[in-house]
Specification:
Blueprint: E1 9-12, E2 15-18, H1 19-24, E3 33-36, H2 47-60, E4 64-69, E5 77-82, E6 119-121, E7 127-129, H3 140-144, E8 146-149, E9 152-155, H4 156-160, H5 164-171, H6 178-200, H7 217-231, E10 237-241, H8 249-264, E11 268-272, H9 276-281, E12 285-289, E13 298-303, H10 305-310, H11 315-321, E14 339-345, E15 353-358, E16 362-366, H12 373-386, E17 398-402, H13 415-418, H14 421-430, H15 433-438, E18 462-465, E19 473-476, H16 487-490, E20 493-494, E21 497-498, H17 499-503, H18 507-513, H19 518-529, H20 546-559, E22 573-578, H21 586-601, E23 605-609, H22 613-616, E24 621-626, E25 635-640
Parallel strand pairs: 10-11, 16-23, 16-24, 17-22, 22-23
Antiparallel strand pairs: 1-2, 1-3, 4-5, 6-7, 8-9, 12-13, 14-15, 18-19, 20-21, 24-25
Length: about 650
């Protein structure tokens, strides 16, 4: 093969041999064998031949060319010329520094130990920091590449571990050799602009390596918005769904300023929102209503903010103009309350916080996003109460977290099952004459056990169709036609309705139907009072919004608020509400506050993580964390009655 290509000689262990000699005496194991491409005497006009020979050598081995140079009267000297970063002694070759090498999503850049996840699973199923990449997700080669930030050398992984504010500061100190300045300036300018957008939207405390699934909905939406603003596009329609979720009023002002800049670049912004600050800043408002579910779907009003203030037919205008107000503050004598005290809270950015609030009262915890509110409640307070490490918690009989997490993942779960309404109805249907004649028990009317449910769909009312490479398709069960129960069970009726027909009603309809049943009516009344009168009782909880799920949970405890026969005297719950105002209109906030006052009147304690000014102003006690986000937060900056009370 080599002879056909015109090559005649090789160099083995430093000795030049003909190819014929190599065939007769092959090189020993470990001996270096080099192909002689050309022998050239350097003289004037030989440059083109040298270039051709170098190109021929690189075609055979593109990583390295060797030249044996001999000056008359001296020993030959071997010189090596590498086209890539290569260690001649060890043979290690640095791969091409492509963008894929610096992405943990790429097999070229991901850490081989954790596959770019940053964590590995232990034998006990726990997730631990990857020992190879220390959580930076990149392989050793990528982490070995560093940039010089005024004497501070950082890899991409180390740079992304820093807060956005520090990233922005360091980027201004990046030392770029003059030869690369023109090529790198556009990339540095774009990165600087995106970091500035993150800072302007109040996300300066985040790290670029933060997992997206660990961000709140508001943080994730603002991060995406920063990418769009930093991209400099125009002529785009942006649709934002409640971008003020989790925002302090000061952060909302930053958001408004960013949206206006996006608008001024020639873009159109459509926002689904209830926040008064953002509504006032809009150029045009459209109001839907008049109610929820089937009672909505109509455009009630549209125009400027001032038009809404003057419009007598606009429910939103009535709230914005002050013609309607949230319920008056029901004062509470805090001096007569016992207090719950959590000492030395130090998780994440919390700085040895002492958190105390009154029992039997309504307390709000507020502060900028990232100031430590969720950490204080979810990672410190609730585990400490469970461990018996909170002073004053002995009188709390039960601690309940009412957040926007799903009510369940089972398609059999519905508002009727989540609130316990079905538990009240099953004995009723089991006591009817036909049920007693057939020997049906309350279990017959459960969707979780065999006997009464439709076995074709397992009590879900739907059949799952596997679509191979597409998302699964769900169709109505052809046996029960969505009723969830089998034919024999559906033959049992009360007031002309089977159990399936009764549960197919909305909350408003069911309240009238079950008015004679105190326990069932109490649950339905609580749902109605929280603005869920439109909700069908058999709707799968997997289709509920976060706000609907939270209000269904709250209604469950609201129904239990009134003392009942057989309940323990002095029973007191601690109800922790995580941003319950999310997604609520002013009228629904009114319902929420009245429900909270009912819970408080029954002796329960309500702790609410919230930013809504209407709710904060009507709390008995207010605790504010801050003064900033991330490392700038973690301290209690105010504790007492709302200012201006």
């Amino acid at each position: 093969m080599l002879r056909k290509q015109g090559y005649l000689r090789v160099r083995v262990a430093g000795e030049i041999l003909e190819l014929d000699e190599l065939e007769q005496q092959p090189p020993a194991a470990g001996q270096v064998c080099e192909l002689v491409v050309d022998r050239i005497v350097l003289r004037e006009g030989v440059e083109s031949r040298v270039a051709d020979s170098v190109q021929a050598a690189l075609r055979l081995w593109p990583d390295e060319v060797r030249a044996l140079v001999q000056v008359r009267g001296s020993e030959p000297e071997l010189r090596c010329f590498h086209t890539r970063y290569r260690n001649a002694g060890t043979g290690f070759t640095l791969p091409d520094l492509t963008p894929g090498l610096f992405s943990h999503f790429s097999p070229h850049g991901a850490c081989p130990e954790c596959n770019g996840l940053g964590t590995i699973e232990s034998g006990k199923g726990e997730l631990n920091l990857c020992p190879a990449c220390k959580g930076m997700r990149l392989n050793p080669t990528a982490l070995a590449v560093t940039l010089d930030f005024a004497g501070r050398e950082l890899s991409l992984g180390a740079f992304c571990e820093l807060p956005v504010q520090e990233n922005h500061h360091l980027l201004g100190q990046l030392e770029v050799p003059p030869a690369y300045q023109s090529a790198l300036q556009p990339a540095i300018g774009s990165l600087t602009q995106r970091l500035e957008c993150l800072m302007e939207l109040g996300l300066d405390y985040l790290t670029l390596s933060r997992a997206a699934n660990s961000l709140s909905g508001g943080e994730l939406q603002r991060a995406r918005l920063a990418g769009q603003i930093g991209g400099g596009l125009s002529g785009v329609l942006y649709i934002l769904d409640e971008p003020t979720i989790g925002l302090h009023p000061a952060e909302t002002e930053r958001l408004i300023a960013a949206l206006k800049r996006l608008r001024d670049k020639g873009n159109t912004i459509l926002v689904v929102e209830h926040d008064p600050q953002l509504l006032q800043a809009c150029d045009w408002l459209v109001e839907m209503g008049p109610g929820s579910g089937p009672a909505g779907g109509a455009v009630l009003a549209q125009g400027t903010y001032q038009d809404f203030l003057r419009n007598p037919d606009s429910p939103t205008g009535a709230w914005l103009s002050g013609r309607r107000e949230l319920p008056a503050v029901e004062s509470r004598n805090l001096s007569a309350c016992r207090w719950l005290t959590l000492s030395h809270a130090r998780a994440r950015n919390l700085k040895d916080v002492e958190f105390r609030f009154p029992l039997g009262a309504f307390t709000c915890l507020s502060g900028p996003g990232g100031s430590g509110k969720s950490t204080l409640v979810h990672e410190c307070l609730l585990p400490a109460i469970k461990a018996g490490q909170v002073d004053g918690a002995a009188s709390i009989t039960r601690t309940v977290l009412v957040d926007q997490s799903p009510l369940g993942s089972s398609p059999r779960s519905t508002p009727a099952t989540a609130t316990g309404l079905l538990d009240e109805l099953r004995p009723l249907y089991a006591a009817l004459p036909l049920s007693r004649q057939r020997g049906y028990t309350a279990a017959r009317f459960s969707l979780n056990t065999r006997g009464g449910r439709c076995e074709r769909c397992g009590g879900t009312g739907r059949l799952q169709v596997d679509m191979n490479f597409l998302a699964d398709l769900y169709t109505e069960c052809d046996a029960c036609h969505g009723a969830r129960y089998n034919r024999e069970t559906l033959e049992v009726t009360w007031r002309g309705k089977s159990i399936a027909q009764a549960l197919a009603q909305t909350v408003d309809e069911a309240l009238e139907f079950f008015a004679s049943l105190p326990q069932a009516a109490g649950i339905l009344k609580a749902l109605q009072e929280l603005g869920l009168g439109y909700l069908p009782l058999d709707r799968p909880v997997t289709t509920l919004s976060g706000g609907e799920s939270q209000r269904v949970k709250l209604a469950t405890y609201l129904a239990k608020a009134a003392p009942k026969r057989g309940s323990r005297p002095g029973e007191q719950y601690l109800l922790v509400l995580d941003e319950p105002s999310t997604g609520l209109h002013f009228g629904e906030l009114d319902m929420l506050l009245r429900a909270i006052y009912r819970l408080r009147a029954a002796g329960h304690t309500i702790l609410c993580i919230e930013h809504n000014q209407g709710i904060l102003s009507r709390a008995d006690y207010l605790v504010e964390l801050g003064p900033g986000s991330g490392a700038a937060g973690g301290r209690i900056t105010y504790a007492g009655e709302p200012v201006g009370r």
